[in-house]
Amino acid sequence: MDSVLAASGNASWMLISASLVLLMTPALALFYGGMSSRRSVMNIMMMSFGSLGVIAVVYILWGWSMSYGTQSLGGVVANPFEMFGLRDQIWDESGNYIEGASGYSNVIDIGFQLTFAVISTALISGALAERVKFSTWLVFSGAWATLVYFPLAHMVWGGGLLSHAENSISAWIFGTEGGEAIVAPIDFAGGTVVHISAGTAALVLAIVIGKRASFPKHVSRPHNLPFTMLGAALLWFGWFGFNGGSAFAADGLAGLAWLNTTAAAAAAMLGWMLIETLRDKAATSLGAASGVVAGLVTITPAAGALTPMTSLILGFIGGILGCYGVGLKYKFGYDDSLDVVAVHLVAGLWGTVGVAFFAREGGVFTDDYAYGFKLLVVQIIIAVVAMVFSGAITYLIAIALQKTLGWRIDKEAEANGVDLDQHRETAYDVAGTNNFAHAGASMERNGQAPVIPSRTDIKE
């Protein structure tokens, strides 16, 4: 009876966690939307919602199979056809729900992992604000998830090259014991799979696609900071499912992940605002919101391996590094519109590598090497492999799409606003801009050329 109640409680927690992580994608839309200009807010929000639509479909078709299938292809990815369309993954031959590895129905785990794939892809969109075709973004979303995210999920969580399995890189370097690597890499909830991979992809795309016409002399200011703060708050809320759910049970580990997540986010927010105050003489709401997200990113790989005290340290440093990371785009000249590289790549790298300094001995993934050089080596290796893999594949996808569908909207459309060009609507009906959009759509339906207002027709 106790085991039945435990399984039921764990199933409930995982369904709640999956719902929380799903909420993170609309929350990201708010976070990015507030940071964008008034003429691009709907486009950047649509990119998040578009990713949700595309990735949910491809995950059911082949994403689960590629991530967690048993037919591994060299430890890099699993056979996409083995479980295509979730074949034989929900019910057994008798019609009963198949029990997953954690003791509750396998279909719950599938839903939970689907939400991770969605948010990971949507994160990348922030680097491309105000200048890319929506249709190309949708194609990229499906291609990137298929060729980058699903293989990385298999490598880290599916028993592949970056896991603790006996065929992993860690096992090759430091040996095995009992069929597993002696020094097991730590990625509790997705430092490599989610944040390093998405941050690297954002950097590559920003370079390949190029700068906005106004960058860096005239950068659009955030048009609605309350949106951004609300988005950050909802991301923080959803992150309890992201990290707490990665315990796969309603137990003490989930509670530890919850507390560590809160500690790191709070400390990172203070760290970010401290740098702003020392450098700019003012702490900003945008800095506070960005600091929260940087802290959440930092603690993601380490949430089950630290104490609340060490989470404060890890998060505080993550906030500082994220704040300084924003300046990299001006130093090196790439146009990462909404600072995906600083918040996700920089903070994600620190969280993945920094856990080696603070992992508590006897923690869920740690062993006698918790404070040793060997764990540090392993963490650096998984971070570098994730960066190289994501960067190389993203580059190939980006170039292929550039030469076929094309990435950029034209210069006039960029000046008038990507919302109007790509969606025939605007967030705010200023000077009748939405009237232009609806009139244009109506004329197109009647076979007439649509009327698109020029930049001089739309008053700021």
Automatic annotation (TrEMBL):
One of its GO terms (molecular function) is ammonium channel activity. The keyword Transmembrane helix applies. It is found in: Cell membrane; Membrane. Its main location: membrane. Residues 13-428 form the Ammonium transporter AmtB-like domain. The chain crosses the membrane at residues 12-32, 44-64, 110-129, 136-157, 188-209, 256-275, 282-303, 309-328, 340-359, 371-401. InterPro entries: Ammonium/urea_transptr, Ammonium_transpt, Ammonium_transpt_CS, NH4_transpt_AmtB-like_dom. Belongs to the ammonia transporter channel (TC 1.A.11.2) family. This is Ammonium transporter. The gene is amt.
